[in-house]
Amino acid sequence: MRKEANILFVGVGGQGTISASNLLSAALIELGYDVKMSEVHGMAQRGGSVSTQVRYGEKVHSPLIEKGTADYIISFEKSESGRWLEFLKENGTVISSDHEIRPYSVNMGKEVYPEGIIEEMQEKGYHVKSVDAQSKALELGNAKVANMVLLGMLAKDLGMEKGLLDRLIEQYFKPALQEVNLKAMDLGYSL
């Protein structure tokens, strides 16, 4: 398992960004790491940007990730990965859903959605893992578990045992939501 990391979760309100970061933080604490987490809701209730910063290691003094120091950006909406890219360190990894949520300003024709953002990051040499987490979640029967697909991908990349996250899903989620979240975690872990 990776001994320390700075992980930036980014998305749009309602995508489960905070739930995923809370679950990861609980797992890291169980593994004995010092964990600090900071969340910014912004205009989350209106579909606005949401970010959560998770830092873990032997000793962590601050929950905040400075620009150029994130080991990972976990993006629940693909344009958010581009918006936060300046926080990624040179050899960092972007794990992004290929899902688009077009803001009101784009739908009204006042702004343009940044097409090709994933491809652009790859062309610039960034290490990007992209998956249509929303479609994968829909195949499992619940679009809201896309966050667990991405968390599963991150857990695998960190070298975290999947069983720990499975156990925490069973502990923290209502029984009616456990099975679909477990399947989503399995799927992400296998990608």
UniProtKB/TrEMBL annotation:
Please indicate if the UniProt record lists Oxidoreductase as a keyword.
Answer: yes
What range(s) does the Pyruvate/ketoisovalerate oxidoreductase catalytic domain occupy? 13-189
**Keyword tags:** Oxidoreductase
Which SUPFAM superfamilies does the entry link to? Pyruvate-ferredoxin oxidoreductase, PFOR, domain III
What are the boundaries of the signal sequence? Answer: none
Would the keyword Disulfide bond turn up in this protein's UniProt record?
Answer: no
Q: List, in alphabetical order, the Gene Ontology terms for molecular function in this entry.
A: oxidoreductase activity, acting on the aldehyde or oxo group of donors
**Which Pfam families does the record associate with it?**
POR (PF01558)
What name does this protein carry?
Answer: Indolepyruvate oxidoreductase subunit beta
